[in-house]
Every structure is written in structure tokens, then in C-alpha cells.
Amino acid sequence: MTSTEQFELYDLRVTVDAIHGRSVCGLNVGDYFELTESSRVRIPDGRHFCLYALAAVLPLLPPKQRSLDANDWLEQDTLVACPDPEERLIMRIERINRRVLKTSDLT
């Protein structure tokens, strides 16, 4: 396999870091989901993740999966707020693993 046939991405974990209001959607501090293998969303068995909190963080995940310049704002920022003003829920994006993927395995 040549270097042009593979690339690296980070697996990510998005964790509820704080709730400064009331948890309308039923999430608790410490709840999380993981994004692995480029596009697989994993939520622990028996748990859920609010669709609106998920929608708030989704646009930031593809760039966070990649290596960024140290001065890039997205490299430095890890916190995302849910749009529900009643909850004031804050999520943290963490890189948990670096993975080598084959281009031919993905679209």
C-alpha cells in the first residue's frame, strides 16, 4: 500500500463537560458518544445523546478528526455549547486515538 492509498484520522469522544442550567434532554455530566473509523457514531449501551446537542457539535467533528496547525482556532478550542438556552450544556471534544485508514475503504 502506498502512502497515497492511506491517511490518518483521529477517533473522537464528545463528553458532556458541564450543565449550567437544567437538563431538559436527560443528559448528565460525563455522558458521551464516540466517533470512530471516520464515520461511526457509538453511544454506550442503554444511554442516549440529545439530537440537538449532537447537531451543534457535528459540523466541528470532521476538522477535529484531522491534524491541524497549532495556531488554528479549532486546534485550540475543544468546547461546544448546546443551543438550548435552558440547559446551557457544554460538551468537550477529545481526540482518543489516531487511526490509519485506507482510501479505498471509504467513499
Whole-number total of structural domains: 1
- How much beta, percentage-wise? 35-45%
Runs in which pLDDT lies below 50 for 5 or more consecutive residues are none
Radius of gyration: 15 Å
In the sheet with the most strands, the strands line up as 3-2-1-5-4
End-to-end separation in angstroms reads 18 Å
Q: Please state the structural category.
A: mainly beta
**What is the averaged pLDDT score?**
92
Portion of residues within helices: 10-25%
Structure write-up:
The protein is mostly beta strands. The chain has one domain. 14% of the residues lie in helices and 36% in strands. Strands 3-2-1-5-4 form a 5-stranded antiparallel β-sheet. A hairpin with a 3-residue loop joins β2 and β3 (40-42). The model has no long low-confidence stretch (mean pLDDT 92).
What would the keywords be for this entry?
single chain, mainly beta, five-stranded antiparallel β-sheet, 107 residues, globular
